[in-house]
Amino acid sequence: MTPELTVLAAHTERLLTTARSLTDPAAASLCEGWSRGHVLTHVARNAEAIGRLASWAVTGQRQEMYPGGQEVRNADIEAGAHRPLAELVRDVADTAAALAPQLEPLGGPLAAVEVEMRGGMRVPATGLPFLRLREVVYHHVDLDAGFGFDDVEAELQRRFVADAVHRLGLGSRPPAVVVRADGGDTWTVGAGTTTVTGSLSGILLWLARRDASHVQAVDGVVPTLPRGA
Hints:
Elements: H1 3-21, H2 36-59, H3 69-80, H4 85-103, E1 114-116, E2 122-124, H5 128-142, H6 154-169, E3 177-181, E4 186-189, E5 194-198, H7 200-209, E6 215-217
Parallel strand pairs: 3-5
Antiparallel strand pairs: 1-2, 3-4, 5-6
Helix pairs in contact: 1-4, 1-5, 2-3, 2-4, 2-5, 6-7
C-alpha cells in the first residue's frame, strides 16, 4: 500500500468513527441543503464513482463517473439520505472497502492515463487517490460533529490549500489574492493584489467552504470567492 493510500485508509476510519457516534443523521450538515445523511450517502456513492474511474484507467474501457449524469447522481443521494444511521455507516464502510483494492493498481502501468470527472474535467488517473482523500476529509468536516480542518495533519493541510489555490486559479475570473499561512507558506492566485492570512486550517476553511471567519486581509477586506472553484 502506498503512503497516500495509507493516509486515505486512516482518514476513512476516522470518518467512520465520527459517523458511528452520530445521534441524529437528519441534522443539518455544513453542506447547504444537505443533512448528515446526505453527506454520508454522497461519500458512499463517491467511492463507487472513483472506483469506476479507476477501472477505466486500468482497463482502458471508458466509464462515466456517475452514470446518468447529475440528475441521477442527485436522485441517488436523496434516495439514500434518510436511511437509519447503521445503514448509512455500513454503506460508507462497504463502499470504501470495495474501493481500496481498485486504487492500488494506479501506481503501475495504465491503459488510460487520464479520466473524466463529473462536469467534463479530465484529470490524471494517478490523482484519483488524492481526489478520494479530499472527499473523505472535506465531508468529514461537513458532518459538523467535532472534526475540523485543524484536526488534519499539517502536511495534508498544505496539500489541500495548494490544491484549492490551483483550482481557484483555473476559474474564468480568479481573484487576485496572495494566501499566506501563519507559518510562512505562501500561494498566489492571479495578480495577487490582496493578501489574506490565517492558520492553515483557517485558510482551508475559507478556500474549501467559503467560511472567512478564521482569516483576515492585510489591507481591505477578504475577497468573496466564487462558488464551486
